Amino acid sequence: MNAQHGNRDDAEIRKFEALAARWWDPNSEFRPLHEINPLRMGFISGKINPAGQHCIDIGCGGGILSEALAHQGAQVTAIDLAEASLAVARLHKLESGLDIRYENIAAETMAEQEPGQYDIVTCLEMLEHVPDPEAIVEACVKLAKPGGHIFFSTLNRNPKSWLFAIVGAEYVLNLLPKGTHDYAKFIKPSELASWCRHYGLEQGELTGMGYNPLTKRYRLQNDIDVNYLVHYRKPA
C-alpha cells in the first residue's frame, strides 16, 4: 500500500523494471551509473564521512549507490517504487555481504513514518523521473536530521542538455536506452534551489558532471549545463 503513492510515473517504473536483471552488469544499460558512482561517492564523502551515519538512498534502483555507501560504513536504508529493481538489489546485497534495508515505499510515505531520522539523504538521478519533484525535495527535508546532509543530482533543462543528454547519450553514443529521459522533466538548478530555499535548506557546493566521448570517461567539472550534483544542509 505504501508504494502506491500518487507521486509516481508508472511508465517510468515499468521502464526500469524491464531492465532490472541488468542493474549489476557493468557493460549493460547501467554502465554509466557504474562509471559515475565513484564520482558521486567522492562528492558525498568530501562533505561528510559516511562511516557510522544513518543514510537513506531515495530512488535506489538496484542498489549501486546504496552498496557504495554501505561499503564506507554507513547504516543504509534504500527505497524505490520498482519492486523488480529492489529484488535485484536484495539479491546482490547477499552476494556482497552488506547490511542494507531495502523498502518498496514512496519517499513521501517514508518521510511520514521516519521523520528526522537520517544524517545523509541521497536522491540521485531520480527527480527527473517523477511528476512532482518538489514533493520529493520536501520529503528529503523531512527525512533529514537537523544538521543533516542532503544530496541531489539531476539534469539541467536547456538546449545543450537536450543535445547532450538525449540526442548524444541515447541516440548517438548509445550510452543509455532510447527514451530513458523526458526533456520536459529536466530541472534547472535555479528551480531546485528555489524549492530547497522554500524548505529552509542551506546550499553547499554545486558541481557539474561531464563525459568525454574520446576518453570515454566521466569527470566532475564547473560546467553545470547538463548533469549536476548539489549538496544541501538542513539547519541545526
Give structural notes.
The protein has 236 residues and is an alpha/beta fold. The protein has a single domain, classed as Rossmann fold (3-Layer(aba) Sandwich). 37% of the residues lie in helices and 25% in strands. The protein has an 8-stranded mixed beta sheet. Helix 6 links the parallel strand 4 and strand 5. Helix 2 runs parallel beside helix 3 and helix 5 (107-113) runs parallel beside helix 6 (133-143). The longest helix is centred in the first third of the chain and has 15 residues, at 31-45. The protein starts with 9 loop residues before the first helix and ends with a strand. O-methyltransferase that catalyzes the 2 O-methylation steps in the ubiquinone biosynthetic pathway. It is an enzyme of class 2 (transferase). Belongs to the methyltransferase superfamily. UbiG/COQ3 family. Pathway: Cofactor biosynthesis; ubiquinone biosynthesis. It catalyses: a 3-demethylubiquinol + S-adenosyl-L-methionine = a ubiquinol + S-adenosyl-L-homocysteine + H(+); a 3-(all-trans-polyprenyl)benzene-1,2-diol + S-adenosyl-L-methionine = a 2-methoxy-6-(all-trans-polyprenyl)phenol + S-adenosyl-L-homocysteine + H(+).
